[in-house]
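Appendix B. Extra example for self-study. Work through it before the problem class; the solution is given directly after the inputs so you can check yourself.
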Amino acid sequence: MSAVPFALLDEQSKREIRRAILKGIAIPGYQVPFASRELPIARGWGTGGLQVTLALIGKNDVLKVIDQGSDDSVNAVNIKKLVTKTTGVQTTTRTQDATLVQSRHRIPEVPLRADQVLVLQVPEPEPLRDIERSEFKTKRYHAEKEYSGAYLMLFEQIMRYNQTSQGADYPVLVNGRYVMNPSPIPRFDNPKIHQSDALILFGAGREKKIYAVPPYTNVESLAFEDYPFVVEQFEGKVCRETGLSDVFLDELTDEVTGETYYVCNDTSYMQEILQQKVAAK
Amino acid sequence: METVHFTQLTFRTLMDCFARPGSKGTLQTLHSIDGLYPQTLSVLMTLFDGEISFQAVDDSKRLHQELRQWTGAKVKDYHEADFIIVPANANKEQILKVLEVVKIGNLIDPQQSATIVMELPQQSNEVVYQLTGPGILHKELVELGLSPDILALRAIRNREFPLGVDLILIDENGKVLALPRTTKLEEVKS
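Solution. Structure tokens for the complete assembly:
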């Protein structure tokens, strides 16, 4: 048996992914089809993001992988292990120290810089899939910039709940042309994609699509004049550990007392703040 | 350097250039063939394989043959090729004729468009352009030794976004710059 290539994928697979990434950057928000290789993890577990990461990564990269804001959850740990075993690159939990960040369902609280790249794992890249099952047809809707279906979904939510109830994967309009699923990040993170300093790449392994938002690109969350876009509100709630209130919070229940409490969702950021507090004492 | 690491570095340079139009990247060299800058070959080795087709603006068949041997890529006509190679010795009339016919994709599959890898000859009359579009914070000023006629035709072919062509420009010092279809250029009169 021959040795495993650097970064697992063979050169031909990488070339195809790399060509798709360049097209994706040239057509912001457009889903570029790609072959999507078999990997040692199952489709639907971050294989799209992983393939993008493997096509990008070099010996000098420092990798951070997050899953729902956590560096230590199963998906993040396994992806990190696979990449380090096949590349030998360094990993980090500190957002500031990473050159490459692969993430499932969050954009880190620490703002990303121009020399960093964010790779997001995407389960469903098609924002119109809920209203149209046929890929043949949704491709034509995109071609004709026919996005009334995306607005209709939000309209129905407003009719039912008097607000949009779409918690994650809230659709955005990229560069005034393509409506795009930003992957299941909370609405709270949507504004971070707009005019980002870092390049953001999206990989959907099961659906075989790669797309991109270049830096300094206009990204607007869909909304109505009388129902503007709003992010999750955490009024009066603070992180129990750090006291932060301007971050995305997780709601948890104390199993002994039954009391509801909140903690910072981005665990590495929380740790950093706690360390700063300890150092200050 | 091993090829896997070489193509990885070359790709990251290209990706940065696409993500930030107007910024110049430095390409490394590994091999060379007659008639192309060695840095151009680095780009072709990174992007070309048997899955894609190309055509070079070149009268001799030798370059085509050598590139096929190097990469396994197929040769197709200008209007069908995925990549167009413009060597430094191509003249303006040739380039304009090619740019007129290369594929720009269709509204359903805008990615089925040509990428033009163009070598810039040593130039004296460089023009300053102001670049705007995705990837550019406010605006970027760039000196380019590229004929205004070529850029005017590029603008025509890129008129209907998402249709259009993407350009990779390589100068004789191995500096690379990308002009994806989203980038708008405007001449800055001094």
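Self-check: The interface with chain A takes residues 2-5, 7-9, 11-12, 14-15, 18-20, 46-52, 106-111, 115, 134-137, 161-162, 166, 180-182 of chain B (CB under 8 Å). If your reasoning did not lead you there, revisit section 3.
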